[in-house]
Amino acid sequence: MATQKIEYVIPPASKQFCEAIRFAEGVKVGNMLYLAGQVGWNPETGKVVEGGLPEQARRAFSNMKTVIEQAGGKMDDIVQLMMFVADTGSGKSLMDDLGVVFEIKKEFVPKGMPCGTGVRVKGLALPELLVEIQAVVAL
Q: What are the helix (H) ranges across 1-139?
């Protein structure tokens, strides 16, 4: 049985962080790209962006775009999205928060119609993070 080549996709701005924790931003196997969860973290500053859920979602999609393009794809190649939204205790429903994320998604994925999953979680890796978005891409 032939073994498929595995390639790690690590944008230059994330290299030091990825090497420290031994995670890649993306893993390419054949014509498939599996993205690690992307958050509203700015790899240039090493800080979570301000502006609440809309800006964190925008930054997560921007980070995602960087990884996908480095692997040779485009945002409309996304076939699956998994969105994890933190419960902030605001009383807003998951669908309200996902609606915000979906509006931002339209800016980055104007034509594609990936399947998706939305999950409310108690928390993410850092307490200030509000959303994490994972993707699978067909290149």
A: 15-21, 52-70, 94-108
Give domain limits for the chain. 6-138
pTM listed for this prediction: 0.95
Return the axis-axis angle of helices 94-108 and 52-70, rounded to nearest 10°. Answer: 40
CATH number of 6-138: 3.30.1330.40
Rounded-to-integer distance, Cα 64 and Cα 38, Å: 6
pLDDT digits (tens, 9 = 90+) for 81-98: 999 999 999 999 999 999
Checking phi first, is residue 72 left (phi over 0); if not, alpha (psi -120 to 50) or beta? left
Instruction: Assess whether pLDDT exceeds 60 at residue 124.
Output: yes
